[in-house]
Amino acid sequence: MMRHRIASWIPMVMMVVWASAPAQLSAQAATATLKVTGDVRTPLSIAADELKTMPRTHVQVKDQDGRTVTYEGVLVGELLKRAGATLGTDLRGSAVASYVIASASDGYQVVFSLAELDPAFTGSEIIVADTIDGKPLFAYQGPLRIVAPKDTREARSVRMLQQLEVVRLKK
Length: 171
Prior knowledge:
The chain is α+β, with helices and mostly antiparallel strands. It has a single domain (32-168), classed as Alpha-Beta Complex (Sulfite Oxidase, Chain A, domain 2), CATH 3.90.420. Helices cover 29% and strands 32% of the residues. The protein is built from five helices and ten strands; from the N terminus they run αββαββαββααββββ. The chain has a five-stranded mixed beta sheet. Strands 3, 4, 7, 8 and 9 form a five-stranded antiparallel beta sheet that branches. A hairpin with a 4-residue loop joins strand 5 and strand 6 (109-113). The longest helix is centred in the first third of the chain and has 30 residues, at 2-31. Mean pLDDT is 85; it is low at 9-29.
């Protein structure tokens, strides 16, 4: 009898959890902040809402099931430019020996060379994404993530992105 009562409540609980998920995702996205720190002129703390006002880029990648999905966000190079990282024609000499550590909320970190994040240097389209196929990122991905569309493996597509730190090896 007790087992039947519990079983009858499970569908209702699941519906409440499922119905509240979009609100949780949008609240999570609204409070998300990305920090750009390190060897930059102006360290930044960028709210997810601010990203929506910046120039947007779309990139397509294959997901784990082989489907083509479209991510939308802001070029990492644009964010670094706003923070005053050395980019464009100034990215030469010892500045080329710089890298960016992308860090996630769970402690996961990856490294990109500064040059590969500068569209003027490589033409790359590595973005900080906040949507997938026109919708907010799934909870396990976001609210922010890096998408590197030309990487053949997703190891550098940092989920739950929190910080970009610019490091220069030689000053």
